[in-house]
Amino acid sequence: MCGIFGYSGGTKAPGIILEGLKRLEYRGYDSFGIASLGDTIHIKKQQGRIPENGFDIGGLSGSIAIGHTRWATHGVPDDRNAHPHLDCSGKIAIVHNGIIENYTVLKRELIGKGHRFRSDTDSEVIAHLLEEVYDGDLFASLMMVIPLLEGSYAILAIAQGDPRIIAVRYRSPLVLGIGDRAMFAASDMAPILEHTRRVIVLEDGDVASLTPDSIEILHDDKKVTRSEEVIEWSVEDVRKGGFRHFMLKEIYEQPAVFSDAIRSLRKEEIPLLVSEAGQVTIVACGTSYHAAMVFRYLLEEHCHIPARVELASEFRYYPPPLSGLVIGISQSGETADTIMALQMAALHGSPTLAIVNVIGSSLSRIADATLFMRAGPEISVAATKSFIAELAVFLHLIDVMKSGSLGPCLDHAHQAMEEALLLELGNAVTCCMAGKDIFFVGRGPYYPLALEGALKMKEISYIHAEGYAAGEIKHGPFALLSPETPVVAICVPGDTYAVMTSNIREMKARGTPLIILGERGDRDLEEIADVFIPLPDADSLAGLLSATVVLQLLAYHTADTLGRDIDRPRNLAKSVTVE
Amino acid sequence: MQAVILAAGEGKRLRPLTKNRPKALIPVANSPIIDYSIQALVANGIRDIIVVVGYRKEHVIRHLNRFDVPIEVVEQKNQLGTGDALKCAEPLVKGDFLVIPGDNYIDGPSIAKIKDEKNAVLVQDHPYPSNFGVVMIKRGEVTQIIEKPEHAQSFTVSTGIFSLPEGFFTAIKGNDLTDAVNEMIARGGHMKAVSTSEWQDAVYPWDLLALNKKTVGRISPVKSGTIDKTAIIKGAVRIGRGAYIGPFTIVNGPVIIGENAVIGPHCNIGPSVSIGDRAKIESFTLIEDSLLMDDSSIGSHSRVVEAVIGEGSVLMDHTTVAPDTPFMEIEGSVIRGRFGCIIGDQVRAEPLSIFQGAIIGNNAHIKGGNKLTGLDAAHDEVLVV
């Protein structure tokens, strides 16, 4: 997914585009760029997010501009590959969202004709194709180019000598906005709504030309009118797509995130340095640290490879003696502590692997190899789908090292998450809301899930919550248990089931309200629990994923019922780029 | 023009299939029923769409996010009825508008017939009118709509698709939309009856077989995925990306096969079959006139005819599904329908199971060698030994 935005109107076009691109960041944020049209075309683009403290748009001017914010799925997001793209002469600029499927053929032909390409993108061919036919009428030129393109595209184009923006839509979204002596074109309404509420949704095959006063739309070479709509929703509504919070939207995306991640990882070569690693150290912070702890349990149990997990912030000042592979995980790839920890590992001569969600982020640039978790842009401060995507990467690695024996389980794991989304949690939420402190307990790989469940709970509901390995409760925290401290216990079939149930009974004796996640139909647990939550696929690795979903939803609904500002929890930022 | 799609109701008579999703999200020909309503509107240039959600609302919202037409969502807190549902959309309605149920099949030409009419209802003749609102018509004008009468005086039923004026909301007194329409007529408002082009509802779960047959019959053939060179593909067959059709498999269209589905070798699929994403059909299995949802799987040497199989359900080797016409009590009425089986989500049936006119609840576990009919195992999580 990428976002495009164009404006034709007053004099401050580049500034309006920059602001609009910020509204589109949820569609992608690994690089961005703007092209403005005055007497000549000027362009500015760079890798990374739009800086919060301002981006210098000096050099750009004019009343017409187009912009792009990118989410790379193939190829590196660097300055070169960022949109807009220019033709050889620098007189035509385009931004594109979608895929040109036949670009390799087109590119070869264009290179044969002497065109010089500056990027690795599919999109750049559009600029050069336009250059071939451009004679001062950009609209006519684009009409000639469109039949050559296969795939999906929403394109905005500008050219020196033609005072219009030409917009094309085919199987990628594009809407137009009608302002007061100003026209807009964008991937969705988010950047338009602060300027105007009058929009036109284009249809596949429409080509539109925009000037400050007019919009002209052609379809199959015939002029058409498209009905104008007055939109009353807010920018936030557009981005959340009907969900009340980004967090809930992202929780519901998780089954698809997981199966997409597994499918695309299977098409990739796993770097030898991973599959041949004799020992692994993982550095991470926060939610990623919990995912890494799950990995440690599974790697040691299933592959007999010793693993250690270190908090990046500790590791960089107190590095242990290192041998073997060092893995750094960060959703944004910009977590300062994790970057410095991985840099330090590299200095020690350790082979390094980055696992990130944002292609081309800092962490991936300093590592020897990178795996992408492909969770898509994550907006909610409380991480959910990136945790699931991290687990997908780790489970896939173990599957590869175990020559595919987890395959069938991974194929069905998304269903366990779907089932978890259907669970009724009302009673558990009531129980948590009444708590002063909440304790989350589990054993084995469910212990890090207990930590993650507690983290989610405290960061969005502001109820004090702690996670413990269930056996540790007796070594201190037991003193705090009372009827005011609900316990969320994960108790699944397996080696620790018996000892786990005895832990639970001890806690029950303190009068503690018990929320238990266990296998469906477990009569013993149903009897002990105040609230029993039947965990889908509790008997397989997929249970880790369904338990995650339950814990996330429990935190979400508790916070929501308490009226917390879920997408903007107090004092927290999405990625921690300082130490 | 605006359109309000009503997709808040569960559709209790379609249980177990509606336990995990509202009726509007049940897939036929691999697309949730609501997609057909949206497509029919978009085909008519109607893009200002409001969807009323309620039951399992997050699932509906997540699905709607796949459309790049912006769709506005409003929530009906309690599912009291269609009139109450429509009322939820009142603050967003700015003029004359269409109301469409999100859980019926409707085609574009039908919408074209009503969209330019003011005060109109789409009607169609139905062999069992008592399940619907029966429409009394005099000289093309509706005089009354009688909701689910015991003895219907006409075969003409309301599709629930109306073209209504902005002021209609004042006629909504109770929770029911039909009452409101009758109220409007009683106040002297007129309502024209317009015949549909194509419309179909699924009242009972076995009606999904007919709905599936209709929608699969309209697919445009596309061949993606990998098709073994010995496989035979006849008629209109749509095969999704990443799907695999194994050696000596015969696919007899119309058939739709989802993404990453795996079929064969030596299977015989079709006609009128929908197979969901990631579904798996093992060797020497025959499937005819059936709807298999995502992630379902059928073992080898099976014969599956007139079956609806829910998400993630696994029927192991040597399964037989054969049509029958059992009598059943559903939501208080005794009814008979013809079907092989209606199987909920995440059901697991061990080898040599036989289903003959059977409804099976979600998460049921059926040990091998059982024969099931009627409502024997219709509860969720039932264990049949």
Fold and architecture overview:
The complex is a heterodimer of chains A (579) and B (385). Chain A contains 18 helices and 25 strands. Chain A is α/β, with parallel strands linked by helices. Chain A has 3 domains: 237 residues, Glutamine Phosphoribosylpyrophosphate, subunit 1, domain 1 (4-Layer Sandwich), CATH 3.60.20; 163 residues, Rossmann fold; 142 residues, Glucose-6-phosphate isomerase like protein, domain 1 (Rossmann fold, 3-Layer(aba) Sandwich). In chain A, the strands form 4 sheets. Chain A has an 8-stranded antiparallel beta sheet, covered by helices on one side. In chain A, α6 packs antiparallel against α18, α8 packs parallel to α12 and α14 crosses α18. Chain A is elongated. The relative contact order of chain A is 0.08. The mean pLDDT of chain A is 89. Chain B has 385 residues and is mainly β. Chain B folds into 2 domains: 202 residues, Spore Coat Polysaccharide Biosynthesis Protein SpsA, Chain A (Alpha-Beta Complex); 170 residues, 3 Solenoid (UDP N-Acetylglucosamine Acyltransferase, domain 1). Chain B is 14% helix and 37% strand. In chain B, the strands form 7 sheets. Chain B has a 15-stranded parallel beta sheet that branches. In chain B, β9 and β10 form a beta hairpin. The mean pLDDT of chain B is 92. The interface between A and B is medium-sized, with 32 and 31 residues.
Largest beta sheet of chain B, briefly? 15 strands, parallel
Number of strands of chain A: 25
Number of domains of chain B: 2
* CATH structural class of the largest domain in chain B: Alpha Beta
Draw up the topology in text.
The complex is a heterodimer of chains A (579) and B (385).
Chain A (H helix, E strand, L loop, with lengths): L2 E6 L4 H11 L7 E7 L3 E7 L16 E7 L14 E2 L5 E9 L2 H10 L11 H10 L4 H8 L5 E9 L2 E9 L4 E4 L4 E4 L11 E4 L4 E5 L4 E5 L2 E3 L3 E3 L4 H6 L5 H21 L5 H4 L4 E5 L1 H18 L3 E5 H4 L9 E6 L5 H12 L4 E5 L5 H5 L2 E4 L12 H17 L5 H15 L4 H8 L3 E6 L3 H16 L2 E6 L17 E5 L5 H13 L4 E6 L3 H6 L2 E5 L6 H20 L18
Parallel strand pairs in A: 16-17, 16-18, 18-19, 19-20, 21-22, 21-23, 23-24, 24-25
Antiparallel strand pairs in A: 1-4, 1-10, 2-3, 2-4, 5-6, 6-7, 7-8, 8-12, 9-10, 9-11, 11-15, 12-13, 13-14
Helix pairs in contact in A: 3-4, 6-12, 6-13, 6-18, 8-12, 8-15, 13-18, 14-18, 15-18
Chain B lengths: L1 E6 L19 E2 L2 E2 H11 L4 E6 L3 H8 L6 E5 L6 H7 L8 E5 L2 E3 L1 H8 L4 E6 L7 E6 L2 E7 L8 E9 L12 H10 L5 E4 L3 E3 L5 H10 L5 E2 L2 E2 L4 E3 L2 E3 L4 E2 L4 E3 L2 E3 L4 E2 L4 E2 L3 E3 L4 E2 L4 E3 L1 E3 L4 E2 L4 E3 L1 E3 L4 E2 L4 E3 L4 E4 L2 E4 L4 E3 L4 E2 L4 E7 L4 E2 L4 E7 L5 E2 L1
Parallel strand pairs in B: 1-4, 1-6, 4-5, 8-12, 14-17, 15-18, 16-19, 17-20, 18-21, 19-22, 20-23, 21-24, 22-25, 23-26, 24-27, 25-28, 26-29, 27-30, 28-31, 29-34, 30-35, 31-36, 34-36, 35-37, 36-38, 37-39
Antiparallel strand pairs in B: 2-3, 6-11, 7-13, 8-11, 9-10, 32-33
